[in-house]
Amino acid sequence: MDNIIKLDPIDLSKIANSGQCFRWKPLGDGRFLIPARDRFAVFSQRAENEVDILYSSIDDKAFWEDYLDRDFDYEKIRKSIDENDGFLTAAAHAGKGLRILRQDPFEALISFIISQRKNIPAISSCVEKLCRSAGEFLGSFEGEEVYSFPKPSAINEDVLSGCSLGYRLPYVLSAAKVFSKNPGFLDKLSEMDDEELLSALQSFYGVGIKVASCTALFGFHRMNVFPVDVWMKRALNEHYPTGFDLKKYAPNNGLIQQYIFEYYKTLT
DNA sequence: TACCAGGTGACAG
DNA sequence: CTGTCACCTGGT
User: Fold this and answer.
1) Which of A78, A79, A170, A194 has the fewest CB atoms within 10 Å of its CB?
2) Would you state the pLDDT for residue A156?
3) Is A195 exposed, middle or buried (0-12, 13-18, 19+ CB in 10 A)?
């Protein structure tokens, strides 16, 4: 009983496929190998609102509850959706169990810089190479070696040149340098309001509005930030031709975006 | 084998 | 200020 996390609701597969994280590894039988910060765990889906911690490299259930965003009431947001909006109602229903993880901001920034003009498997492959070449060894599970996401100071041109980054290499290098030269910079970003944060992130070389938005939502857990990529553009054009009202679901636009994004992709 | 992918900066007009 | 375009590399 001690290793069970109850959340209302949670769906590991939906989170794994949501595109907010690039290092979850499916192990079969509904199990996922999940690295986060300085540790990793293996979870399995137990019921609609329960996951089982099968293994944790550090025994700390509270950490994983926080990572899974225990304190946010997803049910409440889904119930607040306008039932006259058939598309969003269906999207939210399909997204039941989706949660916005509390991931490391630096990892999110670098991962989304890498993501530009790449498909998900290619992104995962690049991030994996980066962790293996500059991250710390955390342990292994069923023969699978797990490494942490590298600290800014561990990232250099040599490391990056083996990660298939192409033209994104200088972007990643430049961001890593900013953080390694200013250890307090992350805290400064965390203290900013959404608008300041988005603009600060966009001042990084190679970071535009889309990468900045994804970093703010998935790395800084700014629930009201609404990333728009090619998929979202298509979804919005198709279902909200007169524009999507960002006032209606504030301050939870980010979650609404996730529901639309996920659902729209399953339709195509 | 070609084609193209969860974007961005540089440059035209 | 809005529109175009090249860009590394590896999946499918």
Assistant:
1) A79
2) 98
3) exposed
pLDDT at A2: 81
Q: What is the pLDDT of residues A100-144, one digit of tens each?
A: 999 999 999 999 999 999 999 999 999 999 999 999 999 999 999
Any strand C atom closer than 7 Å to A166 CB: yes
Q: Which residues lie across from A144 on neighbouring strands?
A: A141
Q: Is A113 near strand C, with its CB below 7 A from some atom of it?
A: no
Residue whose structure tokens are 């890498």: A114
* Class at the top of the CATH hierarchy for domain A105-219: mainly alpha
Distance A149 CA to B13 C1' (A): 44
Indicate yes or no: strand C within 7 A of the C-beta of A28.
no
A52 membership: H or E segment, kind and range:
strand A50-56
Please state whether the predicted TM-score (pTM) of the whole model is above 0.90.
yes
Task: Output the distance from A157 CA to B9 C1' rounded to whole Å.
Answer: 21
pLDDT digits (tens, 9 = 90+) for A236-263: 999 999 999 999 999 999 999 999 999 9
For residues A136 and A133, give the distance between their C-alpha atoms in angstroms, rounded to a whole number. Answer: 9
Tokens of residue A48, six digits: 């609609």
Question: Domain residues of chain A, as ranges?
Answer: 4-71, 105-219
Across all strands, nucleotide nearest A120 (CA–C1'): B6
